[in-house]
Each structure stands twice: as structure tokens, then as C-alpha cells.
Amino acid sequence: MTLYLLLVLRWPTRVQTRSLHRCEFASQLYILDVPKSELPLWLCIAEYESRFNTHVIGARNADGSNDYGIFQISDKYWCKPENRTDYFIYNGCNVNCSALLSDDITLAVRCARYIQKQQGWSAWANTNTCAMRSFHYYFYAILLIFESTGLSVVAVVEARVLTRCELAREMFHLGIEKSDLPTWTCIAHFESRLNTSAVGRLNGKWSNNFGLFQVSDRYWCTSDSLRPSANMCHQVCQELLTDDIGAAVECAQTVKQRQGWKAWSAYNGYCQHITDKLTVEECF
User: Fold this and answer.
1) What is the largest CA-CA distance in the chain?
2) What is the CATH number of the domain that holds 80?
3) Taking Cα atoms as reference points, which of 123, 108, 125 lies closest to residue 2?
4) 271 within 8 A of 164, measured Cβ to Cβ
5) E strands, the chain, where?
6) What is the DSSP code (8-state) at residue 13?
7) Which has the least CB within 10 A, 15, 69, 107, 118?
8) Are residues 171 and 261 in the same domain?
9) pLDDT of the chain along its 284 residues, tens only?
10) Does a structural domain hold residue 13?
11) Which residues participate in catalysis according to the annotation?
């Protein structure tokens, strides 16, 4: 017979608590090797169950049991309560319930993933709600990872920052296929935050990346530095920083034709996983 957790929506909290920020929680899950594809549901479950609070003990359930920690894990089936109780059946995670209240969330994550493996996401009562919001949480989760891993750009002071729809419309008018626009807008978002004048931090090979699509001056354009460049776009890098995005789009197309979408780290790490969920139809 399958055993299911009884979860509650209200809980008392201990006096001394630690509430994680979403960014901090997502980063810790990522460090603990939680797959990127699972991050949205774990974020959503933790928010609904405990508001990201590591020390939450749930209000007593109808059978007398309690739920512990950031994922509200039941002391009836999954952890061992401090005192022997009539309702305790099995310590599925082989852990003391008090250990799930630690600021170090390693054991809580390990136990929650074990539960998910045994019973699936339906072990948590809020799974249906989270499934409906999965894209929102997915997009948010990868944004957090993107920030936490330091993949950011330095933009010049005077810049034009486009909205996603503005970029989609301008690229469409420049002849870009509408079917490619979700991927292009995703890459531009993660590479430059849609900033036409973004200049990347100096890379390990002493090169810089320029513009909306962060094109390298080592291979694709020539900068005002003394570094040699293959300049395969036949462009001066400064021309990729103007409010007129024509040159930046033309060069980005050259990069794609020669190397494909995988030329961009943003595509490899993020965009390839979500472009099937994105659309630009609302932009036209």
C-alpha cells in the first residue's frame, strides 16, 4: 500500500529561524547536484510548505504526526521523532527529525529527493499548484543560477535597454524568421540583459564580448585594442554597441551560421531548455 504524506498549510515556527532567500536556496540546491530540470518544483514546494524556512515544524496533523523543515517531511514515515510516539511507523530517510531543521539543508534535500524517488511529486499536497506554475519557477530558477555563477556583463553608462518584444519586432523587421525569435531573445536576455551597449568583462583569453549578443573581439569583430582578431563578421566592435541593432544582428547571424546556437554559453546552459516553452506571438 502506498503511503502518502499529510501536509498542512499553516505552521508554528521556532523562535530562532533561518529563512532563505530564493536566490540562496536555488544556489544551494544547484550546488547539491539537484538537476536543473527539477529546480522549479523544488523552489515552489519549499515556498508553499515552509516559506523557505529551515526551522519550521508543522502544526500537528490529525493522526498526531508533525512535519519538519524546509520541505515539511513527516515524522510518521520519513524521519525519527525525538520521543517514541504511537503514530511513528518508519524512518524512511534514516535521519532524526531534528536534523532536518539545520541551517545546513543537505540532509533535508537528501531526504526530500528520496521521498520524491519513492512516491513522486504527489507526495506533496501542493504539487498540482506548482505544476501549473512550473514555467514561472523554471525561468526564475535559471535566472538565479545565472546570477550566482557570475555570468554577467558590464554595460556602458549610456545604453539602450530593449524589452523582449521590442527586440523580437526589430529582429523580425530585419528578416529573422519568427520561429527563431524565442531563441534569439532568450540569448540576448542572458548575454546582455537586452542592453545594446553591453561590454563583457575581460575573458580568460584576454578578449571582450560586445553588444546584445556578446560577440567576441577575438573571433568576430575587431576592437580598439592591440589584440589580433579573426574578425569573421568584418565589423568594428564599437558598431555592435549602437542603438541601431542591424550590425549586431547581422554579426550574430554569421556566428550562428558558422557555429550554431551552441556558440553561446547562454544557449547551452539555459535557452535550449526553455525555448520550447517561450513564444513571441504576444509581441505582434
Assistant:
1) 77
2) 1.10.530.10
3) 123
4) no
5) 67-68, 73-74, 153-155, 198-200, 209-210, 215-216, 221-222, 235-236
6) B
7) 15
8) yes
9) 344 443 433 444 443 556 887 777 887 887 788 887 788 889 889 988 999 999 999 888 888 899 999 999 999 999 998 876 678 888 999 999 999 998 889 899 999 999 999 999 889 988 777 766 555 555 555 555 544 444 444 444 356 889 989 999 999 999 999 999 999 999 998 888 899 998 886 665 578 899 999 999 989 999 876 678 899 999 999 999 999 999 999 999 999 999 999 999 888 777 887 767 778 888 98
10) no
11) 49, 67
Domain count, the chain: 2
Tell me, yes or no, whether 95 and 191 share the same domain: no
From residue 109, give the alpha-carbon distance in Å to each of 70, 73, 82, 135, 183.
9, 10, 20, 22, 33
The residue written with cell numbers 501549473 in the block is 132
Q: Which of 123, 64, 70 is nearest to 92 (CA)?
A: 123
140: in domain: no
Which set of grid coordinates corresponds to residue 24? 540562496
**Where in the sequence is the domain holding 51, given as residue range(s)?**
22-130
Q: What is the pTM of this model?
A: 0.49
Asked whether residue 1 is domain-assigned, the answer is: no
Residue 17 maps to a domain? no
- The verdict on 119 and 171 lying in the same domain is no
Interstrand relation of 221-222 and 235-236 (parallel, antiparallel or unpaired): parallel
Q: Which amino acid appears at position 233 of this protein?
A: C
Cβ atoms of 199 and 156 closer than 8 Å: yes
